[in-house]
């Protein structure tokens, strides 16, 4: 029997009503399902090669209690797929598919589940680690031109929100906010940070400031950062913008670029949630190495 989607209020309204649980890392769940992600396109490759695996991963988070699902389009770009010989029409179809796969999983839930279309940073397309450094040496205008076609394609697929995520640099944040103007879809903006600075070194106060008076921005926050950095970053985001804050940190393990593996122990602790909520967080989930088990723990403590 076909699932009937539960009617959804706009996500911005829902966040003002109370906190919601976001999903966890797409890549780690795909790896847990046996997928090989040793590819410059990372999880985006499966949009073309095995989309059923992506829907299965989304379903794992729905079962865990996630109320917002992020699409597998983080590393999906016209340039990246173009290097694999795909034309613009084919790439546009894969971007649309990313939203459809998340929507299909969301439709199986008994409560409202929203879909956030991922718009990863310019550095994700380069696949050289610069997404964690920023300072690409690329003018803001060029960054805006790079992002706009993908934003337009994702917006046309009808997500509930665009997730401008893992942004390492305040300059790219400004470019993204210009690129989404007129697309007709609300957005959230999340930076990857170290302490209370972007990965590129700018103060988060400076990075969040352009979002404060932007009506298209329904939430701001941080992702792909250490759990220990979240509380202070939430406080800055809430104070500077007055908007609901979204947070989805990594597990706390460190990535060893030379060994191409994770090191250390997880410090992701649902016990931190009360402090995050008190600071202004309204959408809470996980990023790299945070799987459905951890999201289920969050769902048990977040009063959604």
TrEMBL record:
InterPro entries found in the cross-reference section: BHMT-like, HCY_dom, HCY_dom_sf, Hcy_S-methyltransferase
Gene3D superfamilies, per the entry: Homocysteine-binding-like domain (3.20.20.330)
Keyword flag Nucleus: no
Cofactor note: Binds 1 zinc ion per subunit.
Domain of life per record: Bacteria
Organism for this UniProt entry: Streptomyces caatingaensis
Protein name per UniProt: Homocysteine methyltransferase
Keywords for the protein's UniProt record, in alphabetical order: Metal-binding, Methyltransferase, Transferase, Zinc
SUPFAM superfamilies linked: Homocysteine S-methyltransferase (SSF82282)
GO biological process terms held by the UniProt record: methionine biosynthetic process; methylation; S-methylmethionine cycle
């Amino acid at each position: 029997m076909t699932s009937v989607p539960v009617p959804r209020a706009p996500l911005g309204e829902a966040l003002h009503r109370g906190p919601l649980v976001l999903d966890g890392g797409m890549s780690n769940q795909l790896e847990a399902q046996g997928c090989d992600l040793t590819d410059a396109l990372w999880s985006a490759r499966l949009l073309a090669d095995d989309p059923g695996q992506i829907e299965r991963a989304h379903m794992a988070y729905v079962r865990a209690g996630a109320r917002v699902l992020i699409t597998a389009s983080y590393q999906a770009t016209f340039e990246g797929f173009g290097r694999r010989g795909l034309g613009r029409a084919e790439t546009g179809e894969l971007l649309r598919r990313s939203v459809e796969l998340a929507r299909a999983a969301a439709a199986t839930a008994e409560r409202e589940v929203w879909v956030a279309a991922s718009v990863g940073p310019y550095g994700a397309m380069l696949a050289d680690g610069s997404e964690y450094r920023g300072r690409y040496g690329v003018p803001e205008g060029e960054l805006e031109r790079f992002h706009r076609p993908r934003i337009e394609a994702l917006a046309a697929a009808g997500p509930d929100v665009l997730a401008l995520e893992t942004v390492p640099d305040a300059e790219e944040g400004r470019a993204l906010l210009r690129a989404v103007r007129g697309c007709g879809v609300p957005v959230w903006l999340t930076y990857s940070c170290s302490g209370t600075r972007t990965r590129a070194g700018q103060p988060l106060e400076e990075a969040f400031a352009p979002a404060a008076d932007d009506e298209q921005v329904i939430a701001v926050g941080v992702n792909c950062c250490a759990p220990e950095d979240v509380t202070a970053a939430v406080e800055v985001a809430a104070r500077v913008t007055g908007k609901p804050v979204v947070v989805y940190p990594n597990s706390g393990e460190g990535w060893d670029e030379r060994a191409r593996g994770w090191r250390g122990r997880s410090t992701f602790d649902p016990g931190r949630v009360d402090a995050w909520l008190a600071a202004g967080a309204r959408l809470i989930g996980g990023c790299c190495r945070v799987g459905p088990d951890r999201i289920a723990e969050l769902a048990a403590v977040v009063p959604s």
